């Protein structure tokens, strides 16, 4: 039989069936060279060898077989992204403790009185147990939390201070109750009915659910989830951000009487194992997760929802390069269930799929019981005469005063982390860069260090210029949220200020708590980066000020207009979410006549999309043409360019499908962690068989040893 292993160079290999046999999709352990590795039975195999000469499967693991639907999905996804199948399989087997059959696990808790005289390490174990607050904790988790070896814990067990006991391993998730939804209103009714009908009917159907923030999209798709639960099938809701889930989980709990299963990088390994298994058993009715939840082994998937479908964080940029939104549509198509893409500002890809008749579009017109998006207006910064080290215009400052005076909240949005984006020597003009990347170092004043946003490297803020040696002339140039916070503190000394920037929080939990505090009225002025743009609900917020609306329009990226348009509308959508309060949004800009800024202010969304679509059509770029990026990286800059040039020269297979190759050129991020990066872009007609041609083309070359090659289908920037 054929077994696919997760080994990097693996492919489907022939093995002999074990005694007792096994079937397609079974998880098995097989010998590979001197080792035993994890694999999945992937069909009958080639049968080329005499069965007596091939090695047998070592054992069949105690797990539900991987269903044909998931295997087909992995195979298609591997083909589409030009990823080796074993790497795809790894995404689907990453979490589970496969081959760990015991149905109980050993956990530890405090038992007896704690003696006064304890060694330092034993003391840490006690502290760690207290920190877990009585929750069951395994030996591994405990040793890690205490920073000691397992023997220390065992020693305490002998003393009778700590007890060990076996508990059932995996408890199912509580059943969600489907029957306590809100009564939908207005155009929510029609949208909800349509989605519920899709779920009831079963089968693939793709829908764009479009409506401004607060129009009730979540409420509507939760109706479809409820229908799914009533039919005892499973639903998957993908969200772009961990920070979003806190609010979301509470809401689901209110709607369904219990929390759903959660899957993202912040979830413990133990919990992931449980979810992986429960998903396979059909015991997790609703899974809310980040993009990797797509690879869970659902027993009976009845609905997939991708919330904030335009969000760029759905694109996995490391390892296997895939766009979770597109993969969600693929999985729904293969498994034969409806998929809902929800957004206030859909991606142009989705918009084009609606135009092409591939997706149905459901619109939620106005906000639930309230007005439209707040009115957006420009502040022409050329007229504001601000000194070079200040960023809040007098016009905007006056609005903030008024809002805060009424006891409401103002949000100042600046999509730049840190204190200042540039550290510059006023004597020679040198800008401090990262030693490993092609990036400028950003000053972070809370950490008192310069940080590279590319690789995370840090160094002290230099007193003397590293280039010319002159002392005392180093200056922080340009605004970041931390510097904006200083300006706010000076300008509004009475106001309570909260800074929301992902790097200021040690954990997702700390960020969640901060957000909850702000929503409850714990701040007058919120200063935030991109993370505030996403879905958080601040009921008192009525004014949004965008500090630099021009920021996203710089550079040559063809998607810049789309991104800026989406981001500005989203940020503005934070203001005035409730019926009682009306919001306003002000954009500080140096180019109020720029077409994108005008489109944002004009609010004629359909006109913006149509114009943007026409431009992309004319250029033959996605979504009206197909593109792939080939990223080459190596510590040796000459090597990457030479190899890139070699690729570009021998482009026969691409020319045969009428595709063009651009480059090699420095990649959008030209150097990361000491590796130089070069990119080639391949552009083809929409209908061209791009993947096959790419595979044939790249198959001609054998990259040098230090050189890495990654294929990025549908790159984010081009
Ligand atoms: P979106 O997902 O489009 O941002 P939500 O579904 O979060 O919108 O709805 C915004 C707010 O309005 C939420 O607090 C929600 O509970 C409320 N809401 C939406 N629809 C209704 C309804 N039919 N009845 C009562 N409240 C509603
Ligand atoms: Zn760096």
TrEMBL record:
Helicase ATP-binding domain sequence ranges: 198-364
Cofactor: Zn(2+)
Alphabetical list of InterPro entries matching this protein: DEAD/DEAH_box_helicase_dom, Helicase_ATP-bd, Helicase_C-like, P-loop_NTPase, PriA, PriA_3primeBD, PriA_3primeBD_sf, PriA_C
The keyword Nucleotide-binding appears for this protein: yes
Signal peptide positions on this chain: none
Molecular function GO labels: hydrolase activity
Binding site for Zn(2+) 1: 425, 428, 465, 468
Catalytic activity of the protein: ATP + H2O = ADP + phosphate + H(+); Couples ATP hydrolysis with the unwinding of duplex DNA by translocating in the 3'-5' direction
Assigned keywords, A-Z: ATP-binding, DNA replication, DNA-binding, Helicase, Hydrolase, Isomerase, Metal-binding, Nucleotide-binding, Primosome, Zinc
Protein EC: 5.6.2.4
Matches recorded under SUPFAM superfamilies: P-loop containing nucleoside triphosphate hydrolases (SSF52540)
Cofactor remark: Binds 2 zinc ions per subunit.
Source superkingdom: Bacteria
Binding site for Zn(2+) 2: 434, 437, 452, 455
Transmembrane region(s): none
Subunit field text: Component of the replication restart primosome.
Family statement: Belongs to the helicase family. PriA subfamily.
Biological role stated in the UniProt entry: Initiates the restart of stalled replication forks, which reloads the replicative helicase on sites other than the origin of replication. Recognizes and binds to abandoned replication forks and remodels them to uncover a helicase loading site. Promotes assembly of the primosome at these replication forks.
Protein known as: Replication restart protein PriA
Organism (species): Tabrizicola soli
Primary gene name: priA
